Here is the input.
Amino acid sequence: MPTSEDYEGQVPAWCPGCGNFQILSTIKQALVELGIEPWEVLLVSGIGQAGKLPHYIKCHTFNGLHGRTLPVATAAKLANHSLHVIAVAGDGDCYAEGGNHFLHAIRRSPNISLFVHNNQIYGLTKGQASPTSAKGTHTPAQPFGYLAHPFNPLSLAISQECSFVARGFAGDQEHLKELMKAAITHRGFSLLDILQPCVTFNKINTFKWYRERVYKLDDDYDPYNQIKAFEKALEWEDKIPNGIFYKKDKETLEEMVPTIHETPLVRKKFSFEDVKHEIEKFY
Amino acid sequence: MSRIRGGHNFYQVRFSDRKVLASKEIVDILLALDLNTIEIHKNSVKEEGFILYDSESMKKKFEGAQFIDIPFRKIAFDVGKNSVMANTVATGSVLGLLDLGLDVLNDILKMTFRGKGEEIIEKNIACAEAGYNYAHSNCPRCEAFGIPEPDGKKLLLIDGVQAIGMGALVSGCKFYSAYPMSPSTGILNYLASRAEEYGLVIEQAEDEISAINMTIGASFAGVRAMTGSSGGGFALMVEGLSLAGITETPLVVAEMQRPGPATGLPTRTEQGDLLFVLYAGHGEFPRVIFEPGTPEQAFYLTNKAFELSEKYQIPVFIQSDQYLGESEWTFENFDFERLVYNDYRVREKDLEGVEEYKRYKYSDTGVSPLAVPGEAGKHLVVADSDEHDEEGHIIEDSETRIKMVQKRLLKKLPLIKKEIEAPLLYGDPSPEIVLVGHGSTYGVIKEIVDIYSKDRKIAMMHFSQIYPLPEQDGFDYIEFLKNAGLVISIENNASGQFAKFIRAETGFEFTHQILKYDGRPFTIENLKEEVDAYL
Ligand SMILES: Cc1ncc(C[n+]2csc(CCOP(=O)(O)OP(=O)(O)O)c2C)c(N)n1
Ligand code: SF4
Ligand SMILES: [Mg+2]
Here is the structure.
C-alpha cells in the first residue's frame, strides 16, 4: 500500500499561503487512500503555477506546454490505458490557451481526470485577467477593467454532456479529497474545477470571499439530471455550490477504439512478419 | 491533379517500356470528359495526337484531325442503360485507340464495383468493350502508336503519400494524429484504412496544435507515433516541435508542401517550406530533414526517420510536396530486407539493477535511456518542457543548463551527421555539367540527364537526406561541384532555398539557378528549355 511519503516530491516554489498547497496535499491523500502506486499514475500539466504541481509530487510526469495538457493526456491514455492519467491545469491554461482542447476532450471522453486550479487570475505571469475573472476586474493588462463575460466551465461541460462535472474548494480539503477520489475512479472524462485562492494577485476572490459563499450540494441532489445540473451550474456570486453537479454514464474513448480492447497499445509487439504482406496490396 | 471536390480536375498518365520518372507537357492523347478540359488542355496535345470527346454531351463540335468524336453518353445509355457509365466507355475507348486489350480494365471494373453486384459489373464491362470497339474502328491513324505487347509483369503502383504511410506502418508506427490538409490527408486516409488490420490508433485532432501534442503524448507513453500536415498546419505545430526538442521525445512529422503563403494554391505543388522546416521551433535542438525524390525513397526514408528519431530522441521530418505525394509511380518491388527496426525504449527488465532511473541522465553520446512509463517497474519517468535536471525536474541554474544543452544538442549532432548518406550521383562520373536538385525534382532532372548524356558530360546530384548535410570526408560533394564547369541548382520555388541552405552550411555558392514557382512541377519540356539556355 502506498503512503504519503511515497508521493513526496520537490519543495514547492509557490507563495506562502497559496491555495495550491492544499490542492497538492489533497491529491496525495486521495491517491494514497485509493491505493494507487506512484508508478501507476501519469500527471500531465501545462505551464502556470498549477502546471508546476507534478514536480512537487512523485509519479510519472509530462509537464508540457501552456494550454496543451489535454491532447498529451488523451493520447497517453490511448497509448497506455492501464495508467491513471490526470491532467492538471490552470484556468488560463485550460480555459483560454487550451480552450479548444477542453471542448474536444469533453466530446471524446477519454477516461482521464482534469483538475483545474481555478484562481480566476493568471498567477505565474503576475496578475492578468483569466477567462474566469469577474467582469470589471482591474489588472495591469486591463486598463478599463476586464470587459469579457466570465467563462463558466461547468455549464459548458454540462451542456456538452461531459461524463463527470464537479467543483471543489481548496479551503475544504476533506470535501475536495472525496471529489478527487470520485473523479479518479469515475469511468470517463471527469472535470474537477477547484476554487483556488491566489493570495498574491487576486485580492477579490480570497479564502474569505469563497468561504462566505461556498456550500455543498445536498445529499439527495441527483447528478444525472442535466437540466437541474445546468441550473445549479449557473449559480455564482452570492452562493457558490460545490460537489458533483453532473454525471453521464457513457463509453470512454479507449473503449470505443477496437484496436486496443485487449492489450494497451504500448504492449503490442511489432515484427516485420506482421506487416510484410502489406506491399502485395499495391501490385 | 487535384484532390479537392469541384472545379477542373485532371490526371496525367505516362507509360513506356523503360522507366518513366517525370511528367510531360505535351501528351499523345487527351481524353476530355467536359468542354473545359478541351479549352484548357488542347494546346498540350501533339499535332499528330488525339483528342477524344463527346460532341453530343458537350454540345459542341470540333473540326481538325486531332479530334475523334465518340458518343460516350449515348453508348453508355444504349449498352449500359445508364449514362453514368460514360466514363467507362471513355476509358475503354482510350484502350481501343492504343490497341491494348481489355483484360486489365475488366479486372479493375470487377474490383471497383464488387460491392455493387454482378449486373453493374457486367454493364460496365459491356460499356468498356463498346467504347473500345468504337474507338478501334474509328481511329484514322492509330497504327502509328505501335505499342509493343506488355510483358505481363506485375508492378507496384504507389504514390508518395501511400509510400510514406506504408513506410510508417512497416516501422512499427502505431499512432497517427492529424488534422486534414491537402496534400497530407492521403497519409491520414491510408493509415486509417489500415488501422483495424494492423491494430493502429488514428485520431483526427481538433487542430494541428492538438495533433502534434497528441503525437508527443503517445510517443512519451511508449508508442511509435507520427503526425503530418502541410505548411499552414505545420505552422501551428511549431511550438510542439520545440516541445519534442526539449523533452527529447521521438517524433516523426510528414510535411507535405503546397504553394503558400497562407492558403496559397491548396491543390498545387511547390518546394517552398525547406527553410521554414529547417528553422521552425524556438530555441536550439537537433532535427533531421529528409526530402525523398520518389515514392520508393519516401518508403525507405520514412523507415529511417523512425529509426533515427527513436535512436536519438529527436524530431525527424519527411518533407515532400503535392507533386510527389499524389503522383503514382510503378516499381518492381520494395525490398523489406533494407528496413531497420530497433526498439530503443527501455522497460523493467532493461532496468534491472538500476538504483534510480533518470530520464535525462548525462551520457557520452547525449542519449539518455528512454523508459516507458508504467512498463518500467517502479521507476518513474519525468519529462519537462522547462529546462530540467537529469531527473526531469525544473531548474534555473546555469551549470545544469549548459550541461543539458551539451547533452541534448552538441553531443548528439556529430553522431546524427554520421548517419546521413551522401547525395546521389547519376550520369557522368567526371561531368562538365552538374544539375543539382533535392526532393521531388529527382525524376525530371534524371530524365534530362539521360537526354543530354549522348553528347555531353553531364550528371545529376540529388539530395534526399537534406539536414544535417552528410559529412564530406567520404565523398566530397562540394569539391565535386567546384570541379565541374557548369553547376545549376534546380528548385520548385522562387527564392532558391536549397541553394541558400547549401551556401550557409558549406560556403558553396550556386551561380546558376533554375527556379519554377507557378505552382506546377517541372515537366521534361520546360526544364529542358531552361537548361538549353545555358548550353
Ligand atoms: C504559448 C505561451 N503563451 C504564454 C505563456 C506565458 N504564460 C505562462 S503561464 C500563463 C498563464 C497562467 O495562468 P493560469 O493558466 O491561470 O495558471 P496559474 O499561474 O494562475 O496557475 C501564461 C500567460 C506561455 N508559457 N506559453
Ligand atoms: S502567484 Fe498566486 S497562484 Fe501563484 S503561487 Fe503565488 S499565490 Fe499561488
Ligand atoms: Mg490561474
Remarks:
- Residues A 47-50, 66, 90-93, 117, 119, 121-125, 130 surround thiamine diphosphate (ligand 1) (CB under 6 Å).
- Chain B touches chain A through 67 residues (CB under 8 Å).
- The first strand of chain B starts at residue 27 and ends at 31.
